[in-house]
């Protein structure tokens, strides 16, 4: 039962996610290209479905320059369709592969820019409000209280971080054409995992290796915004070292390594400041692992200082 919604013209498949097929679609009334993700939920009970729909409704309110826009959803008996912004210029995992193949490091300036944008998006999700304006970061105001609409990403990884440039939006990803000052980062796949992880299908279809999963989540503790910060640290590490901080041949071994939180230094090519941001995030101790708020203040100050030099 494909494309029963006549508002959309169903186009080619662009990939397969953990829960079903991902397709390009054309929204006919607006002539806009979108991505449609399908989630088979025939096995879910009505409470689980309700939770999924509730999350969709929260996500559809999550509008931010650095977050893949969630437009709409519709459902039939067995399938939920999610319609979202189409990101045509590739993702961070492609960028990492490109640099690895070329045997080059990703320039540090570009890493700081991507970091700041990921954090801006995480801040929006974790605090339920938009970023504090740059001018106010110098006062020691308390961070905003976490709202009810708090969203935890839960699956932060290079493949869920889309890249484009403000200038060449719509083009294929090409590092040669990429202007570092204009790179636009968009986080995708927010939040929905909350409903899905509890469903039976998750256990059987989550085939990805949990390279970025925090030790507390591996130990079956609940997700918190700080679990995203751990994953964030792992992603930044991978941009520097062109491989994740924890790797292993088996799931058990990976789990063991993550729980030790011991990883190799990033290449000397990069500054101590970058190394120290990464280290602060890949911290087993939730009491000392920084929030998006703290990191963002810190990083913006560093970027501001660097640009003054
Ligand atoms: P995963 O579960 O591995 O994250 P996804 O369901 O997110 O898989 O996506 C499957 C494929 O579709 C991936 O190749 C991904 O890059 C692509 N994709 C997902 N969302 C978008 C989007 N908004 N724009 C463009 N491509 C997307
Ligand atoms: Mg994804």
TrEMBL record:
GO terms for molecular function: ATP binding; protein serine/threonine kinase activity. The keyword Cell cycle does not apply. Belongs to the protein kinase superfamily. NEK Ser/Thr protein kinase family. NIMA subfamily. Keywords: ATP-binding, Coiled coil, Kinase, Nucleotide-binding, Serine/threonine-protein kinase, Transferase. It comes from Lachancea fermentati (Zygosaccharomyces fermentati). The keyword Nucleotide-binding applies. ATP binds at residue 37. It is an enzyme of class 2 (transferase). It catalyses: L-seryl-[protein] + ATP = O-phospho-L-seryl-[protein] + ADP + H(+); L-threonyl-[protein] + ATP = O-phospho-L-threonyl-[protein] + ADP + H(+). Residues 8-301 form the Protein kinase domain. The lineage of its organism: Eukaryota, Fungi, Dikarya, Ascomycota, Saccharomycotina. It comes from the Eukaryota. GO terms for cellular component: cytoplasm; mitotic spindle pole body; nucleus. GO terms for biological process: chromosome segregation. This is non-specific serine/threonine protein kinase.
């Amino acid at each position: 039962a494909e494309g029963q919604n006549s508002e959309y013209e169903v186009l080619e498949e662009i990939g397969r996610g953990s829960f079903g097929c991902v397709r390009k679609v054309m929204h006919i009334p607006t002539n806009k290209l979108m991505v449609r993700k399908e989630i088979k939920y025939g096995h879910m009970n009505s409470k689980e479905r309700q939770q999924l729909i509730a999350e969709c409704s929260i996500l559809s309110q999550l509008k931010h320059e650095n977050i893949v826009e969630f437009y709409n959803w519709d459902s039939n008996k067995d399938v939920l369709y999610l319609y979202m912004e189409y990101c045509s210029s590739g993702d961070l995992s492609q960028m990492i592969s490109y640099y690895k193949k070329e045997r080059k490091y990703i320039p540090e300036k570009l890493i700081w820019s991507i970091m700041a944008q990921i954090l801006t998006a995480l801040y929006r999700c974790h605090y339920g409000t938009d970023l504090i304006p740059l001018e106010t970061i110098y006062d020691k105001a308390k961070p905003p209280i976490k709202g009810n609409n708090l969203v935890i990403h839960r699956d932060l990884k290079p493949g869920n971080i889309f890249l484009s440039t403000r200038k060449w939006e719509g083009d294929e990803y090409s590092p040669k054409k990429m202007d570092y000052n204009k790179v636009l980062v968009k986080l995708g796949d927010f939040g929905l995992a909350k409903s899905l992880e509890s469903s039976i299908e998750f256990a059987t279809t989550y085939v990805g290796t949990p390279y970025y999963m925090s030790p507390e989540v591996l130990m079956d503790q609940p997700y918190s915004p700080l679990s995203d910060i751990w994953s964030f640290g792992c992603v930044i590490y991978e941009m520097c070292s062109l491989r994740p901080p924890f790797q292993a041949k088996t799931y058990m071994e990976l789990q063991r390594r993550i729980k030790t939180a011991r990883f190799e230094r990033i290449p000397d090519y990069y500054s101590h400041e970058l190394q120290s941001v990464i280290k602060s995030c890949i911290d087993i101790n939730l009491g000392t692992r920084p929030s998006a708020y703290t990191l963002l203040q810190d990083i913006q100050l560093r970027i501001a200082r660097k640009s003054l030099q």
